[in-house]
Amino acid sequence: MDSRDPGGAFARAGARVGRFTERALARRLSRRPAPLPADFPPTISFTFDDFPESAYANALPALDRAGALATWYVSCGLLGNSSPVGPIVSPERVRALHAAGHEIGDHTYNHLDARAVPAEAYDGDLAANHAALGRLVPGLRPASFAYPYGQVTLGAKRAAAARTITCRGTESGIARGTLDLALLPAVALYDLSMTRERIEALIGDVARAGGWLIVYTHDVAPGPSPWGCSPDLFEATLAASLAAGLRIATVGAVAAEIMPGEGP
Ligand SMILES: [Zn+2]
To answer: Ligand 1: distance of its center to the CA of 108 in Å?
Structure first.
């Protein structure tokens, strides 16, 4: 489309407004409110989206040394494939992490952008991922979900929240007060947008003022992708969390504590 196509320009402007409205609606509606208890300990959750091999190779040893468990959001359709964040792990890695006590979360089967498909298709894809994860790890019923690309619509939010206790977005922030478990905030641990000083300041803020800090990244490698971090930044974040006395817990463990008795 070019400047001689004013209809196209209007359509694009309309689509932008539509996306804004979708996001605003998703933020305000279909909430799953849960207050953080008054005695909630300052907590950090480490989460990985897509689960590339480099995260397994370069983040897991540091987590193991710290005795820390993380949440790994898996799109079964990506397993064993190449991706913009590097090669994605094989199914065996998912089984191994689950056996070691880590949390395996849902991330749709085909890594769907919520804006790109109708809610029914999103729901069907979620069902496919739950079924595939259940075959991969018999008995597994994911309690945690992360929106691919951080994209959320009202329909996607309803579909995802119906299947899991929590849904994590990518809107930056520390979870405090009354949370919306169907759209949890999270802070990107990307070399491109995060510095060691800034993440240490956020960790210090949580240690002093309380709250739940969820960080997310993809690949963990020297010279990471725009959506990943270096082993140095990852290890500095982990070390700062330990030094500040934060509790390190999976998203699912925290959710189970906030909403005891809830099941997907
Ligand atoms: Zn993803």
So the answer is: 9
CA of 204 to the centre of ligand 1 (A): 28
User: Mean pLDDT across the chain, nearest whole number?
Assistant: 92
Q: What is the model's pLDDT at position 2? A: 40
Rama region for 244: left / alpha / beta (φ>0; ψ in -120 to 50; rest): alpha
Mapped onto helix, strand or coil, the DSSP state of residue 197 is helix
Which residues surround the ion ligand 1 when the cut-off is CB under 5 Å? 49-50, 148
Range of the domain at 51: 31-258
Q: How many angstroms separate the alpha carbon of residue 126 from the centre of ligand 1?
A: 14
Determine, yes or no, domain membership for 35: yes
Report pLDDT for 20: 66
Count of other CB atoms within 10 angstroms of residue 123: 18
pTM of the shown model: 0.90
CA distance 119 to 54: 32
Q: For residue 207, how far is its CA from the centre of ligand 1 (angstroms)?
A: 29
